Amino acid sequence: MPDLNDYRDEMQRFLYAVSHDLQEPFRKVRTFGQRLATRLEGQLDDTSRADLERILNAAGRGQGMIEGLLQLSRLETHGAEFTEVELNGTLASVCEELQGKVASSGAVISVDPLPVVRADADQMARLFFCLIDNAVKFQRDDASPRIRVFFDEVETPSETRICVEDNGIGLEEQYAERVFTVFQRLHPRDVYPGLGLGLAYCQKIVDRHGGTIGYQQVPDGGTRFVVALPKSAT
User: Fold this and answer.
1) What are phi and psi of 220, to 5 degrees?
2) For the segment 149-206, what is each residue's pLDDT rounded down to a tens digit?
3) Nearest C-alpha neighbor of 220 from the set 153, 178, 186, 170
4) For the CA atoms of the chain, what is the radius of gyration?
5) Is 128 helix (H, G, I), strand (E, B) or coil?
6) What's the pTM value of the predicted model, to 2 decimals?
C-alpha cells in the first residue's frame, strides 16, 4: 500500500509543476498586453481600450486563481506543528493587518476573551483573517460593519467553539454547502471583488485541525460563522 506521505509529496510536486506551467501563458498575456497598451496609448477608441483592459484583468485573475489553488494545497502539506496559540494575540495581529480596510469601511471589531488552543499558529491567523475580511467586505449599504469574535461558552464536552458574527448582508441556508467550495461566488465580481477562495481556505484549515466550520443566520441580519475545534487538540 502506498505511503500517505509519499503520495502527498508527489501531489505537491505535481501541483507545483502544473501551477508553474499554467502561470506562464498568463504572464505572457499580461506582458504583451501591457506592451500593446503602452504602444497604442492615445490611438485606441473607448471600446478597444476597454477590451484590452478586460484581457489584462482576466489574465491577472487567472494567475491569482492558480496561485490560490497552490496555496490551498500547501495548507496541509506545508503546515507547521501544533503549538499553544493564544487566540487574542492572534486576533490582535489580524486586526492590525486589516487596519486599512477596517478604517475605510468604518467597521468596528470587538474581540471577547478567547481560549488558548493547540493549533498551527499561522493557519489560525489566516482562518480569522479570512472570516473578518469577509465580514468587512460583505457589508450592508445602510450600516457600517459590526463584527464580534467570541468564545461560545455553551458546555460541549468534546469541542471548543469560536464564533465570528457580523451584521452584513447575510447568507441563505440554501448555500450552506456551496460557500466553502473553491471559487464559489454568490455575488457579482464587480460588486464584491475576490476569487472565492477565502472560505475554502477556512474549510481546509479546520479540516486539518480535525474540526468543523459552519454558519448560522443572525436574527437581525448578518452571519455567524462557528469554528469548532476538538478539545483533544486544544
Assistant:
1) -90, 15
2) 998 877 677 788 999 999 887 676 655 566 666 555 555 454 444 556 778 888 988 9
3) 170
4) 20
5) helix
6) 0.70
Which segments of the chain are extended strands (E)? Answer: 83-86, 108-111, 116-119, 146-152, 159-166, 212-217, 223-230
Place of cell 490560490: 68
Dig out the grid coordinates for 57 from the structure. Answer: 484583468
Task: Point out the residues of the chain with pLDDT beneath 50.
Answer: 188, 190-193, 234
What's the CA gap between 198 and 121, in Å, rounded? 17
Residues ≥6 apart with Cβ < 8 Å to 162: 87, 114, 149, 150, 151, 152, 226, 227, 229
Q: Please report how many Cα atoms fall inside a 13 Å half-sphere around the Cα of residue 138, on the Cβ side.
A: 24
Distance CA 106, CA 2 (A): 53
Size (the chain), residues:
234
Whole-angstrom Cα distance, residue 83 to residue 94? Answer: 18
